[in-house]
Every structure is written in structure tokens, then in C-alpha cells.
Amino acid sequence: MSFRTVGNSWELSGSNSPTTSTHSTVVSKRTMKSLSTAFRIANSSSRNFDVITEVGELSISIDSSTYSGKECYLIQANSNGIVDTIPVGTNITAYVTPKLESLEHTQHEYVNIPGNPLTKRSVLTQTEEGYQLVLTKTEGGSETVTTEDFTNDEMSRFISEGANLVLQRLSIVFGVHSRMSFKVFSTENTLTSVTYSPIESNTVSIQNVTLETIGIERCVDNGQDEQPTTWKIYFLSDGHMYTRAQVGSPVYMKIKNIPENFIKDDDADWVFPDFGKGVLHWEDDIEMLSQFLDRKEELQEDHVNYMKRHPELKAILGDFLQFLLMRKPSDVIEFAADFFSSYSATAEMKPSFAHSNFVNKSAIRSD
Length: 367
What we know:
This protein has 367 residues and is of the alpha+beta class. Helices cover 20% and strands 41% of the residues. It has 6 helices and 16 strands. The chain has helices at residues 29-33, 161-173, 286-309, 312-327, 332-341, 361-366; strands at 2-6, 9-13, 36-44, 52-67, 70-83, 86-96, 102-111, 118-126, 130-139, 142-151, 180-185, 191-206, 209-220, 229-235, 241-246, 251-255. The strands form 2 sheets. A 14-stranded antiparallel β-sheet has the order 10-9-8-7-6-5-4-3-16-15-14-13-12-11. Strand 1 (2-6) and strand 2 (9-13) form a beta hairpin. The chain is elongated.
């Protein structure tokens, strides 16, 4: 399965799907409304991983809603905690269409440093020409407001942080096991790439119940001079998030209890959308291009080594090419079949190169 671009939006597609569809939803209302989960935010000491301190809480909810007359999903995510005695938090409110198109996305972050509180509030709104981003930063008593517009082309393949929560859930529910690439805003509010890759599954125990979790790695590119920001996220089979951890950070988030509306695989009634495949521009992806070049070099080296171990191969191909140019048959495929059938112990015995006994005289005259 894969996702394809439709304007600024994304649609989930299956391998046997047609290229067009009249579906107006990506997933059933039951799928979305069942996602309402509370997590604890814990801090494991870098020196002693057995020492775990609960430092906050994360809650995520998704409900059906409308925005300017459009049916959509209201996504709310709130994380609040205390890190090194300083209150910190992030609150997200997003209106996202069933095709993962962001209609409005508000994100509020705060760090309450005594005497110098920091806040950042970004509001992304869809316009006729594309999107408008209004960023408000407050440090102490000083406030700065900046506005930036983005065209539809610039926002192609874009997925907001709110839509990201739905995308991850859909990836688990529909079993998308391939690597996906999109655009997101960086911490500096510039467009950058983000990739989603499947990782190994784990078996966990929650309230004395053994459950299988499915993993996704989310990686945000921070440019050539910085390491990418990477999260490892594990989900229950119905798409509920089990745990999320940022690589290199001692802080992680883990589900408190088995969700009351946890849906077992045999109880699920997921609606599979009927969309077409998209075009994968792997040449524009640095990681995929690097993998391609590494594999190409590996194959070339393997082929060269094979020919060194079998010098007779070059002699056989040389004989074939020389004989081909001498006979100049009109049907090269039949001639090749005749030529190489002589090496087969089971091939029917017949006059060799019977179809080319009559030399192509026109070819000889042209020479």
C-alpha cells in the first residue's frame, strides 16, 4: 500500500486499486473516534535506566467535526510536564480532512523559565492560493509576530503534526510496510522532509495482558550540518499508540492502561479505501538515492567477479557476436535461439542455423 498526492492532500491506495475513486473518506468514523488515549511521560536516568520518574502526561483525541462546512476530523494532542523543575508543554489543535489535508493547524509550545517564560504559537491556515503561517513568539515581555505564505506547489506532500497522528494510525491499521516520505515544518518553521519506516515488532505486557506492538520510525531531516531528529513509536494492532521515544532523549511516553475502546483484529471493521497508486520520485530522496547507488555498485562488483570466475563466458559471447555479424540474420532472436540450443543436451537435433542458411544478401551489398 502507498499514499499518493491529490493537490495538497494524501490518499491511501492499495496495490490492486484503480487510479481514480469516488470515496470521500479514508477511514471509518469508528476508526477515528476510537483514538482517545492517555499516556504518562517518564524520564529514565542516563546513568541508571532502572530509575524511572513520571514527569508529565500526554493525551490524544480524534473526533468527527466540521470546518467551514467541510467534514473533517478534530485532532487534539496535549502534553504537559516538568523537566528539570521547569514546566514545559505542547498543545496541538488541528482540523484535518479524511484525505489528510490540513484545513487549520494550531500549535502552542511553552517553557516556563522563572523570570523569562518562552512561548511559541503557530497557526497554519489553508487559503485559496495555498497556506498562510502566522508565528507568534514571546520571550519575557517581548513579542514578535511573523507571517509567511506558501503556495500549493510548495505545500505538495505536506503533512502537519496533527495529520501525522492520523497517518501513523492508518499505517498500522492498513499494514503499510514500506518507507514513506513527506514534507513537514522544521523547528525553525521551514519546510523539510520527513520519512516513515517500519521497524521491528515487540511483544509487551500491559495489565498482565500480552499484546503485539508494531513499530514505526519517524525521521525529520535537519539539514546537512545537523543530525536528523528521530522518534521510535510503537502501536497496538488497532492503531492505539503504545510508546513513543525520541532517539537520544531520556524522556519517553508510554500508555497508562489498555484503552477501553481497544479493538482486537477479529473485531475490526476497517474501511479500505479504493485509490490509485502515486508516483515515487526516489531520485529526489537523498537516502533512497544513496541506497540505489550502493546497490548498483554492489551488483556491478558482483557481476565483474562472476565473469572473472567464468572466463568461458566472454569466449561464448564473443563467438556468438562474431557469427551473428557474419550471417546477419533478419531475425536475431531466432538466430540466438539456434546458436545457444547447441549447448543444450536435451535440445532436439536439427540443422544448425537453418533459418539463416540463406545469407542476407541485401545486408552484404549494403556493406
